[in-house]
Structures are given as structure tokens and as C-alpha cells.
Amino acid sequence: MPMSPSFAARFEPIARDVTEHFGTPFHLYDERGIEETCAAFNDAFVDTDYREFFAVKALPNPAVLGIVARHGFGFDASSPAELAAAAAAGATGADICFTSNNTPEDELVAALDVGALVTIDDEAVLDRLLGLGAPPKRLAFRLHPSAADGTVPTGMLGDTESAKFGIPADRLVPAVTAALAHGVEDVGLHLMRGSQLMHAEPFSRTLDTLLDLAVRLRDRTGVAVSSVNLGGGIGIPYRPAETPFDLKGFGATITARLRRWERDAGQRRPRLHLESGRAVTGPHGILVTKVINRMRKARTMIGVDAGMSALMRPALYGAYHHLTVLGGQSRATELVDVVGSLCENNDKLAVQRELPRTDVGDLVIVHDTGAHGWSMGFTYNGRLRPQELLLHADGSVSRIRRAETVADQQATLRFPASVLPSRRNRSTVRHP
Ligand SMILES: *Cc1c(COP(=O)(O)O)cnc(C)c1O
């Protein structure tokens, strides 16, 4: 959702001061907005046993993770670096879900070591985990995204044929049986079917599928499923005219379904887990970038000091991010491409966008960068990932990550000497 009126009213008056103090470009996150959204999530599910595990990959900055942790959220991590980010925000053990795929053994060990609830993505990973000996008492099992009705609602997770995630539904019982035989006692189910979903319907179907599977598991193995995780995927309106996802209605629908199941199945309803990323922080972040060049080609190109290395979504998915020009409301508009400095022609934050006429020095605000923004950044072409700032609830602003430097990029070129001698020399040494 492009910047809320409250966020804009608190940021715009200080925008010039902030850019003079910290320089551009930067991602800036709105603490108050994030807090309101956390409260809205907790409110929507107040009538059921529920916990949100914020998807660390959406915004892996411990300062922001700390905000959501204050609201009772745990974390969904999928790599050792994300486990470290969660730990830096104070999370331990049951505060963390580890939902990874094609999981390397050392990462499995790292997740088990911190006591995270590990989500098994495939029997191959389960075998590996069981092979380590002393499996955890609790495990979750992720289903293939097509498990609900044979389809995958958005392309981001692939389609029925190409999706690489999860265990097909017809293989769940044998997988769980194997885990139980090795001493696992507590089983959760996980199914994420899409991303940027704007309606509750796909989630309701996901829940129905998991609840049916819970009955099947109880009948076939005797285990009572303790949690159902619907994954992430709640969408946000990137365009001003779009209707936001109805979180309250979603909560009511899901709660009613869980209650009905509890009655029908004669069994305590499982705890509800969600792993939302985008919906929690997405609307509460902006990328602020300065116009550095106006250029005439076949089109007018507005050159800014940030590009796809700071925000990949437009180049990667053709995604729309709303753009505004600070103080530009009353200016005449023009049709422009907004471009970064990478040697890639898709390095554009907007293509053929009607924007107020800008000059060098103007500030362009890119909206909805609070999730999958900085975290998807990269360093191709030697581009440096930008700093991150936090607008605190009291109106102060602090730097929560500095900008990358050339020295950071060159740090991996400095290491202790390590040489494997040529084979000829090695055999000379060993057999003189
Ligand atoms: C990316 C991801 C999420 C978060 O998705 P959003 O669309 O940001 O809510 C949650 N769980 C898993 C396993 C993911 O891969």
C-alpha cells in the first residue's frame, strides 16, 4: 500500500533533514506502521491459538526483527544467516521455524542446534535428518504447493509440474510414519501455495487440505497434528487503487473453520502458524533516491542514485512500485523511465511512468520497499547495497545498517594463503 497518510505526514516534513544527515539512497522503515500491522495480525486471530513467524528473508535487519518480536512474533528462517539474524533479535528455540528446501546437512544441524521447529521439505531431507541420530521430538512437514487442489495459485512457487517445494500429499503418511518410528512425537503440517495473494480463498483451501490430512494422519498413524502452517503469501496493494487484503475477515474465516473442525473431528484444533513477510513490513518501507541526471534518448530518462541493486522487484518481475516526487504534487507531469546506473537495460525502477517534472537534486520516493527490497539486493557491477534507516515511533531516525563499501566487497579477496600443489609436485614430495 503506497505510504499511509500517517507515514507520509511523519516523514515528509523531515525528508530533507534526513537526506542531508544520512545522504541518499536509503531504505527507510516506519516503526509505527509495522507495530500497527503486527497488532492487526494479532487482533485478527485473537480467537484462536495462533503465532506469526515473520519471514526473515523479507527484511533481515535485527532492528526491525526486534519490533515484530515485541509483538510476540517468532521468525521463519531458511539459512544460517537468517538464523543468525533471528538470534540477533533475541529469538531462541521455539521462536524459530526453519523452513528450508534442498537443505544442506550442516544447515539442518544449525537449525536443530538452536532448537528451531524444522520443516521437512522432502523425504531426502528427512532421511538425512534421521541419519544424524537423535531426531528432535517436534517436526513439521511441508506439502507440495499443488497439494490443495492440483494447482498453484501464483507463478512465484512454480506450477504443479515445476514446483520444487514440499512432499506430494500421497507420500505424507509414509514420511510421517518413518519419523514417528524414529522417536518424533509432535507433528506439524505446512503448505504455502503462493505469494502476493489478495484474497483469503486460496488460504481457506490450504487450511481445508491440511485439516483433511490431519484426519488421515490420525487414522493411519495415531498422531494428532499439533500445528498447521499456511506459509506466507498475504499480498499488499502495490498500486494506489487496489483493495487491501481483508485481514480481519481472513482471521474470522480461518478461526471459524478451525472451530468447526474441532467439533467434527472430535479432536483439539491444531495451533495456527503463519509465516508472513510482505504483509507485515512491505507497506512500511520506502526507498529514497535522488535525481542525479536528466537524459534524453527516444524517451526521457530520469537517472537516480539507486537502481535494481537496491530494489530488484521491478527488473525481476516487472513489478509495479508506486513512485512520488517529494514536493512535486503541483508540478506538471511528464512520461519517463526512472533508471539506475547498472549496465543492464532493465535497471529501471519505473518504465513509462507519468511523474511530476523533476530536476537534478529532487528526491524520488519508491513505495512499498519494506519487504523483499534490501534483502534481494546484490552487488553485480560493483554496485553497493544501500543503508537502511528506521523512523522510530518518537519521530527520531537512526541508521540500522550502513551502506556497503568497496572494502566490504574486497574483504573476500583477503584470506590466508591456500594452495593445492600440482599433481606432479605432490607425487614428487610423497615419493622422492
Ligand atoms: C518467502 C516465504 C515466506 C514469506 O512470503 P511473503 O509472501 O513475504 O509473505 C514465508 N514462508 C516461506 C517458506 C517462504 O519461502
TrEMBL record:
The keyword Lyase applies. Residues 283-370 form the Orn/DAP/Arg decarboxylase 2 C-terminal domain. Residues 33-281 form the Orn/DAP/Arg decarboxylase 2 N-terminal domain. InterPro entries: Ala_racemase/Decarboxylase_C, DAP_deCOOHase_LysA, De-COase2_C, De-COase2_CS, De-COase2_N, De-COase2_pyr-phos_BS, Orn/DAP/Arg_de-COase, PLP-binding_barrel. Its cofactor is pyridoxal 5'-phosphate. The keyword Lyase applies. Gene3D superfamilies: Alanine racemase, Lyase, Ornithine Decarboxylase, Chain A, domain 1. Pfam families: Orn_Arg_deC_N (PF02784), Orn_DAP_Arg_deC (PF00278). Keywords: Amino-acid biosynthesis, Decarboxylase, Lyase, Lysine biosynthesis, Pyridoxal phosphate. It comes from the Bacteria. Belongs to the Orn/Lys/Arg decarboxylase class-II family. This is Diaminopimelate decarboxylase.
